[in-house]
Amino acid sequence: MPELPEVEVTRLSFALEIAGAQVISVHMGKALRWPLGCAPTLLTGRLVQNVRRRGKYLLIDFDHGVLLVHLGMSGSLSFAPQLRPADIHDHFEMVTTRGTLRLTDPRRFGAVVYADSQDAPQARKLLGKLGVEPLSDDFDVDRFHFELKGRKASIKQVLLAGVVVVGVGNIYASEALFLAGIRPTLSASRLSRPRCARLHAAIQDVLARAVAKGGSTLRNFSSANGDSGHFQLDAMVYARQGQPCRVCSAPIKTMRQGQRSTFYCPHCQKA
DNA sequence: AGATGTCCCTGGAAGC
DNA sequence: TGCTTCCAGGGACATC
After folding, report:
1. Strand B positions with any atom < 7 Å from protein CB?
2. What's this model's pTM, rounded to 2 decimal places?
3. To 10 degrees, the CA torsion angle through A152, A154, A155, A159?
4. Which nucleotides of C are covered by protein (CB under 7 A)?
5. Class of domain A141-264 as given by CATH
6. Among A11, A39, A40, A48, whose Cα sits 20 to 30 Å from the Cα of A208?
């Protein structure tokens, strides 16, 4: 399930290779979350300039226009000069002079959307409400504390919403809250400044480490060059219910928050 | 406005 | 064994 680290690892795995490529053809297969938003032939001849990331979206910049790619929860990209034959879960393919980019997504929660620019309505709709990038200098403790002050929902759900800070999905929200010693059910508004600072550091730490390890491969993630990630080996709480906490040995607990599983240590994480 | 619930989708696991 | 049900999750959207 791709969160920010998996998306960033994917980006790094093909951004340099695809930069400068010219689009030969684009094929959209079975419908993803939304339609492409333009005729595939419109993209023929375009030049790929670079690949950026915003939250969990990849932005493939052309000399004119941009392609927004979201991996959903089961999507992965591959980019290779030669490709295996397409299978039933390959839903998007862009053939270029440098290789073929292909989105494989069994559950089809992913999306590929074209926009004339990052400020075009289609792009604004998807990117406009996203919170701050957690690994950028814009992610500031004072600002973070201020934003959380105004939210009465649980800190876990506020993190997942992506309005305050982007890229923290279900795995890394549980992990970051463990590292910060904060109970996931605690109202965001009740976090003290020092605890916000700890959480801020924990989010940056867990995401940066996950990127460095090549992301998590809990179910089916691999980067565009086919490498698997290794972060799940480091998980402190995620999917470890009933197992001893790696710090205090208390059994890890699980609960539901907003239809999502949360994992936490009842001893290490205080309300 | 923020908070909450619903929905989309399908493979694999669990239950009967 | 074979069927049915449940579950995983990001995020747009509707509703209060």
Report:
1. 2-11
2. 0.92
3. -100
4. 7-13
5. mainly alpha
6. A48
